[in-house]
Amino acid sequence: MLLTLVVTALMLTVGPLRAAAATIGHMRWVFLPALVLLSLLHYVFSAVALRGASGCPLPLVTTTMTQFTASAANRVTPGGIGAAAVNTRYLVCRGVPLARAAVAVAVLHVAGVPADLLLMGAVLGLGTVFGPGAGNDRMLDALGHHAAQAAGLVPPVPLLIAGGVLLPAAVLWGRRAARSAPARRAVAGFADLCRRPRDLAITLAASAGTTFVMGVAFAISVLAIPGTAVGPADALALVAAYLVGAAAGSAIPTPGGVGSTEAALVAALAALGIAAGPALHAVLLFRAITFWAPVPLGVLACRTLRR
To answer: Measuring CA to CA, which residue among 255, 274, 253, 276 is closest to residue 263?
Structure first.
């Protein structure tokens, strides 16, 4: 309990976290229950995805508690290392051999890539289906505009030289990595998952679900802040903004994506024409509810799991 209080105090006193907590005072409170529910649902989907990847009948409640602990570990470790270690340890404690547990966790992370790509394609594609009224075309136009600007800023000759040096090096590194023992085990584990269509479908659907509910929570966070000048018709565009911003923020390996994710999400909202002040408030609200608030729950869950 003392550790939980210390963590909560740190959350409320450290600069960015204190700003995130203060942002809650600017929100429309009617949206708060939906944000909390979506945040909890995110961890339930994570537990279902782990069950599917492992192929074991893990208890849903205990597995969900483990995901809270894994998220708390991710706040201090980059690249999802903390969550991978917690989930591997949990599977071992449930009787799964260490090698199989490590492969299951690796397969879970690998399966998240195609699941998120399919989700992003579906969300962006819905904007074309429903037409300009869906608001999703603004995100596509903004992405194309920024990509064109970035391409125009890069001199062609240095780019060709860098490509001629880096591309062969990347291919060589990729070939060596593919021949490594961990890569072979991960490939074998994913092949085994593909031979279990039901578990594969559960893993992909639950992995996409974890991202989708966060996208919806992000959209609700923007709607909850006065002055953003968006409405329910812009929900798809806001979900697309989250998918793009979260992908860009995760490219920088900081613990939990702190700093990089917030900047990327604010930039994604700015691409939709939302003013900097309301965009920052919306992002801080989103991160306060979905990112920092579950940390004390993760600490308490860790103590319960250890017992």
So the answer is: 276
Phi-psi region of 32 (alpha: psi -120 to 50; beta: other; left: phi over 0): alpha
pLDDT in tens, 274-293: 888 888 889 999 998 998 88
Asked whether the CA dihedral 95, 82, 263, 245 is positive or negative, the reply is negative
Q: In terms of C-beta density within 10 A (0-12 exposed, 13-18 middle, 19 or more buried), how is residue 130 classed? A: middle
The residues near 100 (Cβ < 8 Å, ≥ 6 apart) are 54, 91
Q: Are 70 and 76 in contact (CB under 8 A)?
A: no
Which residues have CB under 8 Å from 306's CB, separation 6+? none
Element (H, E) at 49: helix 32-54
Those residues whose C-beta lies under 8 Å from the C-beta of residue 179, and which sit 6 or more positions away, are none
Instruction: Determine the residue type at 26.
Output: H
- Its pTM stands at 0.78
- Max CA separation in the chain (angstroms): 62
In sequence order, the 6+-apart residues with CB closer than 8 A to the CB of 252 are 260
CA dist 307 → 50, 74, 228 (Å): 22, 22, 46
Half-sphere exposure (Cβ direction) of 86: Cα atoms closer than 13 Å: 29
SS3 assignment for 222-239:
HHHCCCCCCCHHHHHHHH
pLDDT digits (tens, 9 = 90+) for 93-123: 998 888 888 888 988 888 888 888 888 888 8
